[in-house]
Design a protein that fits this description.
430 residues; alpha/beta; Aspartate Aminotransferase, domain 1; seven-stranded mixed beta sheet; 34% helix; globular
Length: 430
């Protein structure tokens, strides 16, 4: 068996990790196993996962109900193509998603990742207008500070200045960007906050296929929480100006914000919704794009006669079976009460960070918390600091953030918040 150092060396030489350089990548930590909220490293250290493996493992690792669902499905089949064939897990999962999402969403298109779900949504919107005889409606309106994925159409809807994809700006479709909402969640609404969005709609509705944004919570774009009235007014304006509304609930879906879906804070139903990340409980990759009958019924009569998209692993039976078990698990306990308890604890234990010199702001909503710093973190330095404290967190930019598994216990969450306070306190302000 290769030694620990040999494995790390091979990884550094040959394995390209996300948002990392080759050569000279950032430090990585070799995982042996994971169970509950803990990641066990090969060197014997145990880490409490404070970010649910990029917000996916809402019920932790190695959950017996998800394992059982996977094992049962593997005895039948792990995969079969979805073109011309179907199967019970996909049908059951589609029905479950229709039952728990806003009422008008009646049709489900499965894909492999959140980025692809966004690609599907944008493609669906453009082809819808083509089906309606309005091919000039092929652009998108979004809001600054947003993030929708790393594929090309999704990148075009990410913030072109403050986002992570500005290097590709010359290759991307040019979309319309409204000013980011400034009225925070819980503050008094001011109608002027929607002015930029409304102006762009009025001026460009003839070429805008859809507006796309994350409702209430901007996640990877800065972990910002904004007023639900913005979402409601945006929905009204889209209807008024004959523009579709796509809501990206990939990060916010399945309870993370305190509602099952963040759009519930605004009590609206989009024309198209994207879900992913926590859909399978982090077990394996799966995403979905949901839409209305009004939109879907145009595809059989359009020029192509079909929706022009079809991922190879679409509707993977193993992923669908596990996802269904994950959603049934979520429904089996008082997840709302659990999220409320996590929110209270995050607020109480992170509030003292406001007094630290390096800290600019502290924000909490549901099982999401961010400590914003005045300056970006040095990942090579900060990441090992968290590991040394027995916690797995993955800061980015100026943010120390946590999105813990829903099953985390109070003492485990305290370990996470204590680590954030310790690291924030250690950082100097230049």
């Amino acid at each position: 068996m290769d030694s620990l150092q040999r494995l790390i060396d091979l990884d550094r030489q040959h394995v390209w990790h996300p948002y990392a350089a080759m050569p000279n990548p950032l430090p990585v930590f070799l995982v042996r196993s994971a169970s509950g909220v803990r990641i066990e490293l090969e060197d014997g250290r145990s880490l409490i996962d404070g970010i649910s493996s990029w917000w996916t493992c809402i019920h932790g690792y190695n959950h017996p109900k998800l394992n059982a669902a996977a094992q049962a499905q593997m005895e039948q089949m792990s995969h079969v193509m979805f073109g011309g064939l179907t199967h019970r897990p996909a049908i059951a999962l589609a029905k479950k998603l229709i039952d728990i999402t806003p009422t008008d969403l009646q049709h489900v298109f499965f894909s492999d990742s959140g980025s692809v779900a966004v690609e599907v949504a944008m493609k669906m919107a453009v082809q819808y207008w083509h089906n309606r005889g309005e091919p000039t409606k092929d652009r998108f309106l979004t809001i600054r500070n947003g993030y929708h994925g790393d594929t090309f159409a999704a990148m075009s809807a990410c913030d072109p200045v403050n986002g992570m994809h500005h290097l590709f700006s010359g290759m991307l479709s040019q979309q319309y960007f409204a000013d980011a909402p400034q009225i925070r969640f819980g503050e008094d609404w001011q109608e002027s906050d929607i002015d930029s969005f409304e102006r762009l709609l009025k001026e460009n509705s003839g070429c805008i296929a859809a507006a796309i944004f994350e409702p209430v919570v901007q996640n990877a774009g800065g972990v910002r929480f904004y007023h639900p009235e913005y979402v409601r007014r945006a929905s009204e304006l889209c209807k008024q100006h004959n523009v579709l509304l796509i809501l990206d609930e990939i990060a916010t879906g399945f309870g993370r914000s305190g509602k099952l879906f963040a759009c519930e804070y605004a009590d609206i139903c989009p024309d198209i919704m994207c879900v992913g990340k926590a859909l399978s409980g982090g077990f394996m990759s799966l995403a979905a794009t949901l839409t209305t009958t009004h939109i879907s019924e145009t595809f059989s009569t359009g020029e192509a006669g079909v929706f022009m998209h079809g991922p190879t692993f679409m509707g993977n039976p193993l992923a669908c079976a596990v996802s269904l078990a994950n959603l049934e698990l979520l429904e089996s306990y008082d997840w709302q009460g659990k999220i409320a308890q996590i929110e209270r604890q995050l607020r109480e234990e992170l509030e003292p960070c406001r007094q630290l010199a390096a800290v600019k702001d502290v924000r909490v909503l549901g099982a999401i918390a961010a400590v914003e710093l005045h300056h970006p973190v040095d990942m090579a330095t900060v990441q090992p600091m968290f590991v040394e404290q027995g916690v797995w967190l993955r800061p980015f930019g100026r943010l120390l953030y946590t999105m813990p598994p829903y099953i985390i216990q109070p003492h485990e969450l305290t370990a996470v918040t204590s680590a954030i306070r310790t690291v924030a306190a250690s950082l100097e302000v230049n």
